[in-house]
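Class, carefully examine what follows:
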Amino acid sequence: MVSRQSGTAEDVSTGSELPHDFDEMYLTSVPPWDIGRPQPVFVRLAESDLIRGRVLDVGCGTGEHVLMLAERGLDATGLDSAPAAIAAAQRKALQRGVAPHFLVFDALRLHELEDTFDTVIDCGLFHIFDDGDRRRFVDSLVAVVRSGGTYLMCCFSDRQPGDWGPRRVTQGEIQAAFANGWRVEHIDQAELEVNLDPPVVQAWLSTITRL
């Protein structure tokens, strides 16, 4: 993993080595995905009113998307398994004078929230899971996305060259993961910004409806 704010793509471990507990990364470095502002792709979604109602950000990191949505007046909750990330998000919320909800929580156990949301957003979480945890994650999502609600997911794409970073995801894998109980509305080409060189990676932006 990178041990500093900026590095090159080659500094990032391959997907097979990525841990599910990222707390140490937040304590000792700035993770590649933490760019200190919302991802432009999610800013555009918010500006187009495609993020609506009660919103849950799974894997929210230091909270930039949740804070953006709270500043727009939405009821937004962010969760992450890394306590250091949530602590940073809470500090940002205090500094910016907004009051979203932040929780240290395992995204594979969303049913334990005992709550539902109109929109769930995911920036860079889906692609960290192996096949077994991917199934568990999708099953977990069922419990929190209301019928007719939307899951907006941006993940690493198989269009990204090289073998550094997290697991590449194909459109077919997304379709297969959400084949039952969901409708995949769109899978669009997108980009994610990172604090590496090069500063942009290829991604898929998926719009998926809970049936």
Observations:
- The longest strand covers residues 145-156.
- Strands lie at 7-8, 55-58, 76-80, 101-104, 117-123, 145-156, 182-193, 196-197, 200-210.
